[in-house]
Amino acid sequence: xxxxxxxxxxxxxxxxxxxxxxxxxxxxxxxxxxxxxxxxxxxxxxxxxxxxxxxxxxxxxxxxxxxxxxxxxxxxxxxxxxxxxxxxxxxxxxxxxxxxxxxxxxxxxxxxxxxxxxxxxxxxxxxxxxxxxxxxxxxxxxxxxxxxxxxxxxxxxxxxxxxxxxxxxxxxxxxxxxxxxxxxxxxxxxxxxxxxxxxxxxxxxxxxxxxxxxxxxxxxxxxxxxxxxxxxxxxxx
Amino acid sequence: xxxxxxxxxxxxxxxxxxxxxxxxxxxxxxxxxxxxxxxxxxxxxxxxx
Lengths: 237, 49
Description:
With 237 residues, chain A is mostly helical. Helix content of chain A is 78%, strand content 0%.
């Protein structure tokens, strides 16, 4: 039953990704000033929105780990696995944002990169979470998870700064698509539909990656516990 | 065809391709990691001699 449900979820996700691609490329009309290159927006913006969501999940996992590491070690380990999964999937989505953005910028602005507030804060966010993953990969010892959780919490503080950056400061980056004042929002219903389908499809895909990564990390924790137990038995025998 | 439109199209193709390379690359890396974990779990489950 579980396998069937997972298979169904994967099938729906793949179908939705195909449908969202079709909407973005063949159904949504060309934008009047940027023409075809505006279609990058249908991948760039959903990936940006969702990277915030996965970093938020990483924050929840980090807080859970720090809250429960003394009283409920197993819950704390689950929190730590969530924190790692959220950070890793968030970095993947943020990498898409940081590569598709300059491609759009090259055509729209004539430059690949500019040190404006939105771009710089996004790059800093990516670097913080890459540091988080490097810390987890190379640091050893019992303090590693605690240090990673603290870094994860500090890293998440950059998320609202990235979100608000083109509201607080004058930036070259376009104004917010939603919630940016009376002129914001997508007016064309076909463009709005293409955008909405892509947000939904990428969200389902992201949760699939997150669930897989969480499962792998929990398995790794179980293996580490078994190895530690075996080593203890070997030394006491 | 307008050369500007051709270049626009190439940039869109590049952006969509890069997106899929990053996402599927991560999925493949995770698949390898999962396989290694399963192998480790089986090794640890076997009684040591």
